[in-house]
Amino acid sequence: MKKNLLLLAIVVLLAIFPLFIQKGAEFEGADGEAEAAIGEIDANYEPWFESFWEPPSGEIESLLFALQAAIGAAFIGYFIGLMRGKHKEG
Q1: Beta carbons within 8 Å of 39's beta carbon, 6+ residues apart
Q2: Whole-Å CA distances, 76 to 69, 71, 72, 73, 83
Q3: pTM score
Q4: Which of 1, 35, 78, 81 is deepest in the core (most CB within 10 A)?
Q5: Do 45 and 39 meet the contact criterion of CB atoms below 8 Å apart?
Q6: Residue 52 pLDDT > 80, yes or no?
Q7: What is the SS3 string spanning 11-35?
Q8: pLDDT of 23-39, one tens digit each?
Q9: Taking residues 49-73, what's their average pLDDT?
Q10: pLDDT of res. 33
């Protein structure tokens, strides 16, 4: 139990620590950074396709991203619990 709490504390510190070190830094997504890098390399680059739906606001986009992360975390947690239960049974 103590080991789990220690690991949880380390994860929380790793998530929060960069926010205090880089005050005022912009934490942008990789998509925007990649688009800027491609534009610097080749100004005539044409994307292969465009998004078929753009979220109405940044908040909705963040909500959908968080929902996707929560569903993924729930699936991983379920799978780990299932495997741990099978391991205890047999």
Answers
A1: 45
A2: 10, 9, 6, 5, 11
A3: 0.51
A4: 35
A5: yes
A6: yes
A7: HHHHHHHHHHHCCCCCCCCHHHHHH
A8: 777 767 777 788 889 98
A9: 90
A10: 84
Looking at residue 17, its amino acid is F
Residue with tokens 């986009």: 61
Tokens of 86: 């099978």
Give the length of the chain. Answer: 90
**Whole-angstrom Cα Rg for the chain:** 20
The mean predicted confidence, pLDDT, of the chain is: 87
Q: Which amino acid is at 76?
A: I
Half-sphere exposure of 54 (CA within 13 A, CB side): 5
